[in-house]
Amino acid sequence: MGKFMRQLQYQVFLIPILVIYTLFTIYPLIRSFTLSLTNFNGYSNNYDFIGLRNYARLFADPAIMSGISFTVLFAVATTVLVTLLAIPLALILDQKFLSKNVLRAVFFFPSIPSGLLLAFVWGFIFAPVPSGILNTILRELFGSGPQPWLSDPVLAKISTIVVAVWAVTGWHAIIYLAFLQSIPRDFYEAASIDGASRWQQIRYLTIPLLAPAMTVSILLLITNGLKVYEIPFALTNGGPGFETHTITHVIVLRGISEAQFGLASAISVVFFLIVLVIGFLQFNLMQRREERMQ
Amino acid sequence: MKRKSLLFVVVMLVSVILGACGSNNDSATGNNGSASEPNQVKLSILAWNNESEMKPVLQGFQEKYPHITFDFQFAPPVRDYISKLQTMLLSDSATDIFMIAAENRNEIIDGGHALDLTDYPFMEVMLDSNKPMLSKDGRTYAFTQNGWVGGWFYNKALFEQAGITELPQTWDEFVEVCLKLKEAGIIPLYDNMQDLTQVHSALYGNMVLSQDPEFDDKIFAGEKTFADGWTEVFNVWKRDLIDTGILTPDMIGLTGEQVESEFALGNVAMFFSGPWVLDKLDQTPDLDYGVMGLPGFEEGQRYYVGAPGVGFAVNSKTPRQEEALLFLEYLSSEEGLQLFYEGTGLIMTAEGFEAEVHPALQQAYEEGLIEGNIYLPMVTWPRYQEALRNQFVVSTQDVAVGKISVDEAIQAIDRKFEEMENY
């Protein structure tokens, strides 16, 4: 009894956060689900229950299917590229050299301004006109003609991913850097006495000990990648056609612009399930990998 | 002891929650109290024009009615404004005065959010031709005193450089002019295809509406389809502008501002725009430009893109209805019209008000706005403006990059319409 009361006493302190979480996360989630079963248009409170019709329509909508495929591509590509770039970057920034602190700040900086702002600036760099910054540089250096960086279906996707990778690599490198600094120096000393080369030290010591950092970094990259909105929005506005539309774009497009709130809610619910499953799988796999590696 | 501390925590929590509710109630009664007191009223307004543009007319009003002050809010048009207002309306926190635009009029009027203004005396100042966009079933829900018309801005020096001495009088001549510019190494026309393109709208005006002004109504009544009206428009656009390389898919990546700057810098000979760009162009030294309508297939036929301006509406649920109506009445007065013009520089189209029009837009104003040779699909379409516009943009871009054919593009539009009808 005493133990139970003590437990309860601790639990009581969770009530405020539970209230907030319920109000701002659980309730909207349930509300989205109930609205997804209606033909609510976002303006009028007179709407009818239409069952699963929104869900049936969802998978026949080219914008939604294109949104899902680009979002998944974006999430996977940014995750892989950022991880491949951030770990070597962290290893370099972990070295002792004169401009170390300045460089850390420089690489971290792009993650401070909002993605919207970054994408607007990159919009000028990628401008498809002959006077666009990148096109001018290419012409001056190589004499090549203007490239449609943001209006060719393939190039637009690549450009969007490049900007996103550029923006967050530094931030993730700092996560890895923090974990790197917690690896005791003795390990490296022991390894070098045993005759391990620098590469072998990285391969068999650093990488396995960075496993917890990878779990965190990759989880953040995947979830943020799936939720991406502002970079493609400001850079290409989802074009050309539906090529760089993300799921979040489609939700706003169908829900707000087209006043099909019920359908947009159905997309949100499906999107929530996709993120939930991917997040759960990824976290479990990575944790198991962590245990195996250590 | 433990029991006491548990009780204490619970009591604290409950009192905090109740306290929050209580203070809410207090502020609500406080508001009502001030409303019944005629001396101090704060009118809230969600404006479409920014604060510096609205300042003269707001100040003029406040000088006349010193007991009314403003809680001024602004959201940039179009999409941001629409979604902000939508959120406010849904959560019952909308401002006393807000704007109705072509893009949100159905939802606002059908939802009963705006007060019916039809019978108020100040509505006489509003031009009859401005009313349909802001009306439903003969009742008008917002007041506008302006309109806009846009056309194709052209750089006179670049035209001269390419040896073009006369403006094109027919569509074929227009295409010829573009090709001539292209031969001279000048980019003839920029169009970023991020909207239902104005070339499409004006072509539709010249090719379809000039024959049958009611065509859009017929589409929405189910007598005609989008394919009936728009297939030829898309075919002409693709054949004469895309296949000839006058418009290229790489233009899709341009922003509106980049297009304006490129024109101001003399890097492109033509682009579509409206009154909002005049200031910027006039500030550019040595830029000599004109504005023309898009010529049709018959000599002398020209269409422009334009519409009535967005209208001021009164929130039907506001307790400050009387003051809100006072503001609309002031807007319609001679003084209000003048100050609104001074602040915004918009083209005024109010009954009995001598409008000043920028010389470059004079022809567009007379031929387009006054004679009614203007078309903006989102104004004429009675339903699903945003959904259809989005589909037009996607279809246009897909045709431009060569992903789909014209027929597929139009089918997608008809499918979208059907889908919306069945939602």
Automatic annotation (TrEMBL), chain A:
- What range(s) does the ABC transmembrane type-1 domain occupy? 68-282
PROSITE patterns tied to this protein:
ABC_TM1
Q: Topology versus the membrane, per the UniProt entry? A: Multi-pass membrane protein
The cross-references to Pfam families, in alphabetical order and at most eight, read: BPD_transp_1
GO CC terms for this protein? plasma membrane
Q: Name one GO biological process term.
A: transmembrane transport
Residue ranges crossing the lipid bilayer per the database entry: 12-30, 68-93, 105-125, 158-180, 201-222, 263-285
Alphabetic keyword roster: Cell membrane, Membrane, Transmembrane, Transmembrane helix, Transport
Q: Name the source's superkingdom.
A: Bacteria
Task: Give compartment(s).
Answer: Cell membrane
- List the InterPro entries hit by this protein, alphabetically: ABC_transporter_permease (IPR051393), MetI-like (IPR000515), MetI-like_sf (IPR035906)
| UniProt key word Transmembrane | yes
Q: Is Iron included in the keywords of this UniProt record?
A: no
Q: Which PANTHER family match?
A: ABC TRANSPORTER PERMEASE PROTEIN, INNER MEMBRANE ABC TRANSPORTER PERMEASE PROTEIN YCJO
Give the family this protein belongs to, as stated in its UniProt record: Belongs to the binding-protein-dependent transport system permease family.
Q: What is this protein called?
A: ABC transporter permease
Q: Which organism is it from?
A: Paenibacillus campinasensis
UniProtKB/TrEMBL annotation, chain B:
Q: What PROSITE patterns does UniProt report for this protein, alphabetically? A: PROKAR_LIPOPROTEIN
**Does the record bear Isomerase in its keywords?**
no
Query: Per the record's keyword annotation, is Signal included, yes or no?
Result: yes
**What are the record keywords, sorted?**
Signal
Q: Which InterPro entries match?
A: Bact_solute-bd_prot1, SBP
Record-linked Pfam families? SBP_bac_1 (PF01547)
Q: Where is the signal peptide?
A: 1-20
- PANTHER family xref list: ARABINOSE-BINDING PROTEIN-RELATED, DIACETYLCHITOBIOSE BINDING PROTEIN DASA
Protein name, per record: Sugar ABC transporter substrate-binding protein
